[in-house]
Amino acid sequence: MPIQHETELYEPIKQALERLGYEVKAEVNHCDVVAVRGDEPPVIVELKRSFNIPLLIQGIDRQKLTDLVYVACELPPKGRAPHGVSWSDLQKLCRMLGLGLITVQFYKSKKKPAVDFMCHPEPYVPRPNKRGAQRLAVEFRERSGDYNVGGSSKRKLITAYREKSLHIAYLLQKHGPLSPRQLREMTGNGKAAAFLQDNVYRWFRRVSRGVYALAPEGETALVTYSHVVSGYTPPPLT
User: Fold this and answer.
1) Engineered SS bond to 33: which of 45, 116, 128, 170, CB 3.0-4.6 Å?
2) Which residue, among 5, 21, 40, 85, has the nearest Cα to 101 in the 3D structure?
3) Do 55 and 156 belong together in one domain?
4) What is the pLDDT of residue 107?
5) To the nearest whole number, what is the mean pLDDT of the chain?
């Protein structure tokens, strides 16, 4: 059963900090928990029953007072993170904000609550993903139009790869069986042969050596994605 009030988090967290050598006091200048160890900077912990935006805002506000700020909440009985995300996602979020994250798991038995310091407050140093940025730029550049709706989920997206596959399917429908060389010249797609051979969507079929035709699945795809192929103009055979 979830805890009824955030004050239930205080004692387990206090004891955990005391085991680390801190002196702990509650509600110091509006901070839920303040811990001091020798001459070190103070540690502040903000408490909420569950992980939410107000908890993060409180934590960020406390960073005016010290760099060592934790946000703390209950670990639900089934261990699931809130908002349909994972705890690793929430740890990443806290790290990006320079916050630490503490969870407290309560048990139905007399067993003491378990306190877990999931991550510690430290300066966030982003690690650029140059390869990912390059893939993003290539995907954007190679799409011929904007055929998706932002925020869509559980629906097939029109990617650059799907567009190029549709272009090949369209030409096979208009001209009949073609060779990879003909399709490469007609589409300007230097990887046309790989599209035909990989046949990711099962839209193509080989009718003889080096000659491909449109499969029934490809006919269906041209109807499904008619809004994409409607702007295509079939070039003459070469």
Assistant:
1) 45
2) 85
3) no
4) 87
5) 93
Question: Is residue 204 classed as helix, strand or coil in its secondary structure?
Answer: strand
Share of residues in the chain with pLDDT > 70 (%): 99
Task: Indicate whether 86 belongs to any domain.
Answer: yes
Quick one: 20 exposed, middle or buried, by C-beta within 10 A (0-12, 13-18, 19+)? exposed
Burial letters for 145-176: b for 16+ Cβ neighbours within 10 Å, e otherwise? Answer: eeeeeeeeeeeeebeebbbbbbbbbbbbeebe
Q: Over range 64-92, report the average pLDDT.
A: 93
pLDDT in tens, 44-56: 999 999 999 999 9
In this structure, what CATH number is given to the domain that contains residue 84? 3.40.1350
